[in-house]
Amino acid sequence: MSSRKRGSGSQSADRPLLFVNAEQVVTVAGPARARRGPEMRELGIERDAAVAVEAGVIRAVGPRREVAARYKRVTEVDCQGGVLMPALVDSHTHAVFGAPRFAEHEMRAAGMDYMQIARQGGGIHASVRDVRERSERELLELARVRLRRLASFGVGTIEVKSGYGLSLDDELKLLRVIRKLSTELPIRVVPTFLGAHEVPLEFRDPPGRRREYIELLVSEMIPRVAQEGLATFADVFCESGVYTADESREILSAAKAAGLAIKLHADELTACGGAELAAQLGATSADHLAAISEAGIRALAGCGTVATLLPATMMFLGRAAQAPARRMINAGIPIALATDFNPGTSPTMGLPLVLTLGVSLLRLSAAECVVAATVNGAAALALAEQVGQIAPGFAADLALFDASDYRELPYWLGARLCRSLWTRGKACDLHDLGVTSMS
Hints:
single chain, alpha/beta, Urease, subunit C, domain 1, TIM Barrel, six-stranded mixed sheet
């Protein structure tokens, strides 16, 4: 006996869900770790397949007749010829901020670069001034809408960084907002402490005050964040004019000692040793990498760090350089793709658009892009044993796309193709997530 739901719907009290009638079930099934090299082209596409979900966990995947025979009393979810995939993972965002910074877009068009804008008090500093003036409640209301829109593209897990406070109280304020988002929203929200996003303007002059801020990060901010359990990761913007490799090492070493896992903004604009540092410290991910050196590629190839590439950022900045994704994959580095959603350099909430850029700018295949935004994105958050693939034992984080072939996801430029989304086996109401149309 079964009941049927079309595309989405709530589960009967004690019945498993049985997903059927997908044109493709893209399982990405395989090792519970980041995929490398040729593995990134292996999607495990199944047709005429069924996926059984019980208690929020995937229990079986395989030929529909075989799986259906094992589950008699089920709630069927009719996928109506769509593409069923693991819910996407956006492993790098800065989604908690106040006002957008659209004036900077025109400033760059007029010839100013990122660091020039920053030196004039724009960039991150502009967002810091804005965030410091806003209440926790106001920031929560703004971020809630943004994360819902991010999720509406089929994203079940979103990493969110602090970093626009740059003081103990304001960084804690941002992290409390992120924690509230994780309890309010049906999606997974992974918090990252980015107190080392910039050196605050008030600590830049005289030069000795810079050291005071680093000591504040190491001795007060990181211990407080760890003590209150407000973050899973700590991150540093290791870049010329921001934090040196030595300063980044000191901050991240303190974070590791406090029990936080670590990430690194590395080699975004200049090759400053960020990739090498990430490898040396065992960072979970090194992100950006548009200016990575050959030494950096060799370092990441020999470790377990995931390289998270953010092509929308470089495109929006108007820079021709992109991370050398093809060379990195050929070297054996696992690649993830993420939005870098933020108010200044990547104001996009559409992860599928990033997959488009992965194909068009990074020269990845559509299959490599899907792996980069599912299991490798999960690995970039140390979640590859829980999400990122459709296989028995994994969480039932699933996305159903209005397509007949997975390659449509990066093909339809900027389109919102997600028809339905489930996290932990529970349907997310896309209307509540802010979807009013499919494009």
